[in-house]
Write a structure and sequence with these properties.
Length: 412
């Protein structure tokens, strides 16, 4: 795709990166066929190719409009189009640049401004989010339906092992997962402890930066990333082998720290090292699979389980098939639904900012998951779990909790 950047974007980091991405696009339209919002709305501008043209126009000096902003807002950032694209167009990075530029040009209505401000200031801060969730649970019956589905009962959580194992890895608690899924990291820690690996959470690490960054607050998101690097670095220097991610959304972002902080002289090298050491829990357990399966000696027949692979796992991190294979090798009857590549509609803050589209995608996904005949659903990202659970009576959890329960059965 030929481009002619406006003067204000020439020789800038965003302009140079966006131009390189645009030049890779050959207008083929393969991306449109797998775009969830295009499938729902049937509008070219609500598909990747149309949004690429909108961003191109802004970069070439055309004034962005509220309509431009709306079409970019409707994008899930699921990156399904990247998996489909034969030319390797890095659409997700282009979208982040485009949203930032449009945000600077197009003032939002007051309601949108306050809503987005609340999300980017409250969600990344656990000390704000936790009491808000606790208060919400106390008055849950009185909440409107849109909030009630987000404020779900607190799941039970087991113990976090005390440590003493020979090897050490770090884990990110993140911002919302400790309150919405407190057993996830504890389950991962118990499994790894059985494999002689201690899982450690750095006290000062928090939100991965994705919430602010994807809401066009790039400076705030990069500050979150720097804080995490500062928290992890002493522990990495002390010998921690890896940074384990149990939320695929966080993992997708942390694996891009090296790229996002490449122009920061003080953090570029550290950020690259952090990205290189970041691994999804499925990658860790695949490496330890022989030892794990040796612990799971008794494998009673299980009821069928449906696995929903989050977009951040299969399209952003390009991890496909690992979770399903691990579960099958452990004796689980795991099933994928039809169109398992499509987004469930959670997409970070998307379910709050675009509820109508989000619910349609959720209901489509749940219909496909129910059709598998499974008695429960597992995923790999807290946002997907919470979103899916809001629309079904089937239990929805993290797949690592399933392995943890199977391991506990061996000890009974």
């Amino acid at each position: 795709m030929q481009t002619n950047l406006a003067e204000q974007y020439k020789n800038t980091a965003d302009g140079d990166e966006a131009e390189a991405i645009l030049r890779a696009c050959v207008h083929c339209g393969f991306c449109t066929a797998t775009c969830p919002t295009y499938q729902l709305l049937g509008d070219e501008l609500d598909g990747p190719r149309g949004r690429i043209y909108l961003i191109k126009q802004v970069l070439e000096g055309h004034a962005a409009t509220a309509r431009t902003q709306l079409h970019l807002d409707r994008c899930l950032s699921c990156r399904n189009c990247e998996s489909t694209c034969p030319s390797g167009v890095q659409y997700g990075r282009l979208l982040d640049i485009g949203r930032k530029l449009v945000e600077r040009q197009v003032p939002r209505p007051a309601r949108q401004r306050y809503q987005r401000l609340l999300l980017k200031e409250a969600l990344p801060r656990a000390w704000l989010f936790r009491p808000a969730m606790k208060a919400g649970r106390l008055v849950r019956p009185l909440l409107p339906a849109a909030l009630k589905e987000k404020v779900q009962p607190l799941p039970a959580a087991g113990v976090f092992p005390r440590g003493g194992q020979a090897r050490k890895m770090l884990v990110l608690d993140g911002c919302v997962q400790p309150e919405m899924g407190p057993n996830i990291n504890r389950a991962a820690a118990r499994i790894l402890a059985a494999l002689d690996v201690e899982l450690v959470a750095a006290p000062r690490a928090g939100c991965c930066g994705a919430i602010r960054y994807h809401l066009a607050d790039h400076d705030g998101g990069l500050d979150d990333m720097r804080r995490n690097i500062d928290a992890w670095w002493p522990l990495l220097e002390a010998g921690a082998e890896a940074i384990v991610m149990t939320a695929s959304g966080c993992g997708a972002t942390v694996k891009e720290y090296g790229h996002l902080l490449r122009h920061d002289a003080a953090y570029a090298a550290k950020a690259q090292r952090v990205s290189e050491l970041t691994r999804d829990i499925s990658e860790i357990l695949c490496d330890e699979q022989a030892a794990l399966l040796a612990l799971l000696k008794q494998r009673p027949p299980s009821e069928p389980v449906a696995f929903h692979p989050p977009c951040t796992l299969q399209h952003a991190q390009r991890i496909r098939g690992k979770v399903e294979q691990l579960l099958r090798d452990a004796g689980v009857d795991v099933r994928l639904c039809a169109d398992s590549h499509l987004c469930c509609g959670s997409a970070g803050t998307y379910s709050l900012l675009q509820p109508e589209l989000s619910h349609r995608l959720r209901d489509n996904k749940l219909s496909a998951l129910h059709a598998t005949g499974a008695s429960s659903i597992v995923s790999a990202n807290i946002g997907c779990q919470s979103h899916l659970q809001s629309g079904t009576s089937l239990p929805v959890g993290h797949w690592i909790e399933l392995i943890d329960r199977m391991l506990a059965m061996q000890q009974d």
